[in-house]
Write a structure and sequence with these properties.
The protein is an alpha/beta fold. The protein has a domain of about 160 residues. The protein is built from 12 helices and 6 strands. A hairpin with a 5-residue loop joins strand 5 and strand 6.
Protein backbone atom coordinates (compact mmCIF):
# COMPACT_ATOMS: atom_id res chain seq x y z
CA UNK A 1 0.00 0.00 0.00
CA UNK A 2 1.49 3.38 -0.96
CA UNK A 3 2.55 5.75 1.83
CA UNK A 4 -0.24 8.07 3.07
CA UNK A 5 -2.93 6.04 1.30
CA UNK A 6 -5.63 4.46 3.45
CA UNK A 7 -5.95 0.68 3.32
CA UNK A 8 -9.67 0.06 3.66
CA UNK A 9 -11.00 -3.36 4.59
CA UNK A 10 -14.47 -3.72 3.04
CA UNK A 11 -17.16 -5.69 4.83
CA UNK A 12 -17.78 -7.75 1.68
CA UNK A 13 -15.56 -9.40 -0.88
CA UNK A 14 -15.76 -11.24 -4.20
CA UNK A 15 -14.25 -14.60 -3.18
CA UNK A 16 -17.64 -16.14 -2.37
CA UNK A 17 -21.21 -15.06 -1.69
CA UNK A 18 -23.01 -18.26 -0.64
CA UNK A 19 -22.30 -21.10 1.82
CA UNK A 20 -21.62 -23.50 -1.07
CA UNK A 21 -19.18 -21.02 -2.64
CA UNK A 22 -17.52 -20.66 0.78
CA UNK A 23 -16.82 -24.40 0.91
CA UNK A 24 -15.63 -24.41 -2.69
CA UNK A 25 -13.29 -21.51 -1.90
CA UNK A 26 -11.90 -23.43 1.10
CA UNK A 27 -11.29 -26.43 -1.15
CA UNK A 28 -9.56 -24.18 -3.69
CA UNK A 29 -7.26 -22.77 -0.99
CA UNK A 30 -6.43 -26.30 0.12
CA UNK A 31 -5.53 -27.32 -3.42
CA UNK A 32 -3.45 -24.20 -4.07
CA UNK A 33 -1.52 -24.72 -0.83
CA UNK A 34 -0.65 -28.30 -1.66
CA UNK A 35 -3.08 -29.85 0.79
CA UNK A 36 -2.42 -27.71 3.86
CA UNK A 37 -5.22 -27.50 6.45
CA UNK A 38 -7.74 -24.78 5.66
CA UNK A 39 -10.13 -23.28 8.17
CA UNK A 40 -12.79 -20.62 8.55
CA UNK A 41 -12.78 -17.83 11.13
CA UNK A 42 -15.94 -15.90 11.86
CA UNK A 43 -17.87 -13.97 14.45
CA UNK A 44 -21.43 -15.27 14.25
CA UNK A 45 -24.10 -12.78 13.28
CA UNK A 46 -27.47 -14.20 12.27
CA UNK A 47 -28.20 -17.48 14.11
CA UNK A 48 -29.26 -19.41 11.01
CA UNK A 49 -25.90 -18.90 9.28
CA UNK A 50 -23.95 -21.71 11.06
CA UNK A 51 -26.68 -24.11 9.96
CA UNK A 52 -26.39 -22.83 6.39
CA UNK A 53 -22.66 -23.57 6.55
CA UNK A 54 -23.15 -27.16 7.70
CA UNK A 55 -25.83 -27.70 5.06
CA UNK A 56 -23.28 -26.57 2.46
CA UNK A 57 -20.74 -29.03 3.91
CA UNK A 58 -23.26 -31.84 3.62
CA UNK A 59 -24.29 -30.88 0.08
CA UNK A 60 -20.77 -30.42 -1.32
CA UNK A 61 -18.95 -33.04 0.73
CA UNK A 62 -16.32 -30.38 1.47
CA UNK A 63 -15.20 -29.94 5.06
CA UNK A 64 -12.84 -27.25 6.33
CA UNK A 65 -10.30 -28.71 8.72
CA UNK A 66 -11.33 -26.26 11.43
CA UNK A 67 -13.63 -23.38 12.30
CA UNK A 68 -12.59 -20.58 14.67
CA UNK A 69 -15.48 -18.85 16.41
CA UNK A 70 -14.53 -15.31 17.37
CA UNK A 71 -16.63 -13.79 20.11
CA UNK A 72 -18.09 -10.32 19.86
CA UNK A 73 -15.85 -9.40 22.81
CA UNK A 74 -12.81 -9.52 20.54
CA UNK A 75 -11.39 -6.70 18.45
CA UNK A 76 -8.19 -4.75 17.99
CA UNK A 77 -7.29 -1.22 18.95
CA UNK A 78 -7.98 -0.33 15.32
CA UNK A 79 -11.62 -1.45 15.49
CA UNK A 80 -14.36 1.20 15.64
CA UNK A 81 -15.47 1.36 19.28
CA UNK A 82 -19.18 0.84 18.62
CA UNK A 83 -18.47 -2.26 16.52
CA UNK A 84 -15.98 -3.65 19.01
CA UNK A 85 -18.42 -3.15 21.90
CA UNK A 86 -21.74 -4.12 20.35
CA UNK A 87 -21.48 -6.06 17.07
CA UNK A 88 -21.28 -9.85 16.96
CA UNK A 89 -22.52 -12.75 19.07
CA UNK A 90 -20.71 -13.15 22.42
CA UNK A 91 -18.24 -16.03 22.49
CA UNK A 92 -20.15 -18.39 24.78
CA UNK A 93 -23.36 -18.19 22.76
CA UNK A 94 -21.55 -18.22 19.40
CA UNK A 95 -19.39 -21.19 20.33
CA UNK A 96 -22.37 -23.22 21.57
CA UNK A 97 -24.33 -22.37 18.41
CA UNK A 98 -21.50 -23.49 16.11
CA UNK A 99 -20.89 -26.58 18.26
CA UNK A 100 -24.56 -27.55 18.04
CA UNK A 101 -24.64 -27.01 14.28
CA UNK A 102 -21.64 -29.31 13.78
CA UNK A 103 -22.68 -31.95 16.31
CA UNK A 104 -26.31 -31.89 15.23
CA UNK A 105 -25.26 -32.49 11.62
CA UNK A 106 -22.83 -35.25 12.62
CA UNK A 107 -19.76 -33.27 11.51
CA UNK A 108 -17.96 -32.50 14.76
CA UNK A 109 -15.56 -35.44 14.39
CA UNK A 110 -14.50 -34.11 10.97
CA UNK A 111 -14.25 -30.39 11.72
CA UNK A 112 -12.24 -29.08 14.65
CA UNK A 113 -13.64 -26.12 16.57
CA UNK A 114 -11.66 -23.29 18.17
CA UNK A 115 -12.65 -20.32 20.33
CA UNK A 116 -11.20 -16.81 20.47
CA UNK A 117 -12.15 -13.50 22.02
CA UNK A 118 -10.69 -12.34 25.34
CA UNK A 119 -9.56 -15.84 26.32
CA UNK A 120 -6.67 -15.19 28.69
CA UNK A 121 -6.79 -17.52 31.73
CA UNK A 122 -6.69 -21.19 32.63
CA UNK A 123 -10.36 -21.01 33.60
CA UNK A 124 -11.20 -19.34 30.29
CA UNK A 125 -9.54 -22.24 28.49
CA UNK A 126 -11.38 -24.79 30.63
CA UNK A 127 -14.75 -23.12 30.06
CA UNK A 128 -14.47 -22.96 26.28
CA UNK A 129 -13.13 -26.50 26.00
CA UNK A 130 -16.05 -27.74 28.11
CA UNK A 131 -18.46 -25.94 25.77
CA UNK A 132 -17.05 -27.65 22.68
CA UNK A 133 -13.79 -25.98 21.66
CA UNK A 134 -10.86 -28.21 20.71
CA UNK A 135 -8.45 -25.34 21.40
CA UNK A 136 -8.43 -21.61 22.09
CA UNK A 137 -6.67 -18.73 20.35
CA UNK A 138 -5.39 -15.64 22.14
CA UNK A 139 -4.03 -12.34 20.83
CA UNK A 140 -4.84 -9.58 23.32
CA UNK A 141 -3.45 -11.58 26.26
CA UNK A 142 -0.08 -12.09 24.59
CA UNK A 143 0.07 -8.44 23.56
CA UNK A 144 -0.50 -7.46 27.18
CA UNK A 145 2.21 -9.88 28.28
CA UNK A 146 4.78 -8.01 26.17
CA UNK A 147 3.77 -4.53 27.28
CA UNK A 148 0.61 -3.46 25.45
CA UNK A 149 -1.22 -0.76 27.44
CA UNK A 150 -4.32 -0.75 25.19
CA UNK A 151 -3.74 2.80 23.97
CA UNK A 152 -5.91 1.88 20.95
CA UNK A 153 -3.43 3.38 18.50
CA UNK A 154 -2.54 0.13 16.68
CA UNK A 155 -3.54 1.53 13.29
CA UNK A 156 -1.82 4.91 13.64
CA UNK A 157 1.80 3.74 13.76
CA UNK A 158 2.60 5.51 17.01
CA UNK A 159 2.00 2.80 19.61
CA UNK A 160 3.67 4.19 22.77
CA UNK A 161 5.14 0.81 23.77
CA UNK A 162 6.33 -0.17 20.28
CA UNK A 163 4.22 -3.35 20.14
CA UNK A 164 2.39 -2.40 16.93
CA UNK A 165 4.54 0.46 15.63
CA UNK A 166 6.70 0.37 12.50
CA UNK A 167 8.61 3.41 13.76
CA UNK A 168 12.22 2.35 14.52
CA UNK A 169 12.44 4.76 17.44
CA UNK A 170 9.35 3.40 19.10
CA UNK A 171 10.31 -0.19 18.30
CA UNK A 172 13.33 0.19 20.58
CA UNK A 173 10.90 -0.25 23.46
CA UNK A 174 10.31 -3.82 22.32
CA UNK A 175 13.27 -6.06 23.18
CA UNK A 176 12.64 -9.62 21.91
CA UNK A 177 14.97 -11.22 24.44
CA UNK A 178 13.00 -9.63 27.29
CA UNK A 179 9.43 -9.55 26.03
CA UNK A 180 9.80 -12.96 24.39
CA UNK A 181 10.58 -14.52 27.77
CA UNK A 182 7.62 -12.71 29.32
CA UNK A 183 5.26 -14.08 26.67
CA UNK A 184 6.66 -17.59 27.11
CA UNK A 185 6.30 -17.35 30.90
CA UNK A 186 2.70 -16.16 30.61
CA UNK A 187 1.89 -19.02 28.24
CA UNK A 188 3.52 -21.58 30.50
CA UNK A 189 1.78 -20.34 33.66
CA UNK A 190 -1.61 -20.26 31.93
CA UNK A 191 -1.27 -23.89 30.88
CA UNK A 192 -0.23 -24.80 34.43
CA UNK A 193 -3.39 -23.09 35.69
CA UNK A 194 -5.46 -25.10 33.21
CA UNK A 195 -3.78 -28.32 34.35
CA UNK A 196 -4.55 -27.44 37.98
CA UNK A 197 -8.23 -26.90 37.16
CA UNK A 198 -8.46 -30.16 35.23
CA UNK A 199 -6.75 -32.08 38.03
CA UNK A 200 -8.98 -30.47 40.66
CA UNK A 201 -12.00 -31.69 38.68
CA UNK A 202 -10.57 -35.22 38.79
CA UNK A 203 -9.63 -35.52 35.13
CA UNK A 204 -6.44 -36.34 33.26
CA UNK A 205 -7.07 -34.20 30.16
CA UNK A 206 -9.02 -31.01 29.32
CA UNK A 207 -11.01 -32.93 26.69
CA UNK A 208 -12.77 -34.72 29.56
CA UNK A 209 -14.47 -31.48 30.62
CA UNK A 210 -18.14 -31.22 29.65
CA UNK A 211 -20.84 -28.55 30.09
CA UNK A 212 -22.27 -30.11 33.25
CA UNK A 213 -18.90 -29.68 34.98
CA UNK A 214 -19.15 -25.87 34.72
CA UNK A 215 -21.30 -23.84 37.11
CA UNK A 216 -22.40 -20.37 36.02
CA UNK A 217 -23.94 -17.69 38.19
CA UNK A 218 -27.36 -16.69 36.87
CA UNK A 219 -28.24 -14.15 39.55
CA UNK A 220 -27.13 -12.73 42.86
CA UNK A 221 -28.19 -15.89 44.70
CA UNK A 222 -28.37 -18.55 42.00
CA UNK A 223 -25.94 -20.66 39.99
CA UNK A 224 -26.63 -23.46 37.55
CA UNK A 225 -24.77 -25.99 35.45
CA UNK A 226 -24.08 -24.88 31.89
CA UNK A 227 -26.07 -27.81 30.49
CA UNK A 228 -29.10 -26.51 32.43
CA UNK A 229 -28.65 -23.00 31.03
CA UNK A 230 -27.87 -23.88 27.41
CA UNK A 231 -28.97 -26.68 25.10
CA UNK A 232 -26.35 -29.11 23.79
CA UNK A 233 -27.57 -31.27 20.91
CA UNK A 234 -26.80 -34.98 20.59
CA UNK A 235 -24.90 -36.19 17.54
CA UNK A 236 -26.85 -36.24 14.27
CA UNK A 237 -30.21 -35.05 15.60
CA UNK A 238 -30.52 -32.29 12.98
CA UNK A 239 -30.41 -34.98 10.30
CA UNK A 240 -32.82 -37.36 12.02
CA UNK A 241 -35.30 -35.21 13.94
CA UNK A 242 -34.64 -31.47 13.55
CA UNK A 243 -38.17 -30.55 14.60
CA UNK A 244 -37.46 -32.01 18.03
CA UNK A 245 -34.79 -29.38 18.72
CA UNK A 246 -34.95 -25.73 19.72
CA UNK A 247 -33.17 -24.95 16.45
CA UNK A 248 -35.98 -26.27 14.24
CA UNK A 249 -36.85 -22.86 12.77
CA UNK A 250 -33.24 -21.82 12.19
CA UNK A 251 -32.44 -25.19 10.59
CA UNK A 252 -35.46 -24.79 8.30
CA UNK A 253 -34.46 -21.21 7.46
CA UNK A 254 -30.86 -22.15 6.60
CA UNK A 255 -29.97 -22.60 2.91
CA UNK A 256 -26.85 -24.10 1.39
CA UNK A 257 -27.17 -21.84 -1.66
CA UNK A 258 -27.59 -18.53 0.16
CA UNK A 259 -26.75 -16.80 3.42
CA UNK A 260 -30.22 -15.29 3.31
CA UNK A 261 -32.84 -17.30 5.19
CA UNK A 262 -35.42 -19.32 3.28
CA UNK A 263 -38.16 -17.78 5.41
CA UNK A 264 -38.64 -14.37 6.94
CA UNK A 265 -36.41 -14.19 10.03
CA UNK A 266 -38.87 -11.97 11.86
CA UNK A 267 -41.52 -14.67 11.55
CA UNK A 268 -39.03 -17.33 12.58
CA UNK A 269 -38.06 -15.38 15.69
CA UNK A 270 -41.72 -14.76 16.52
CA UNK A 271 -42.41 -18.50 16.41
CA UNK A 272 -39.28 -19.18 18.47
CA UNK A 273 -40.61 -16.89 21.21
Amino acid sequence: VPVHQDCLSPRGHKAFSTPIEMMEFAAKMRDLSGGKPVGLKLCIGQPHEPFAMVKAMLETGIRPEFIVVDGGEGGTGAAPLELSDWVGTPLTEGLILMRNALVGAGLKDEVRLAASGKVYSGMGLALNIALGADWCNAARAFMLSIGCIQAQRCHLGNCPTGVTSQNPGRQRGLVPEVQGERAARYHRKTLVALADIVAAAGFAHPRDLEPHHIMHRTGTEKAARMDRIHTFLPNGILLDAPDDTIYADWWAAARADSFRPATDLAAVRARAR
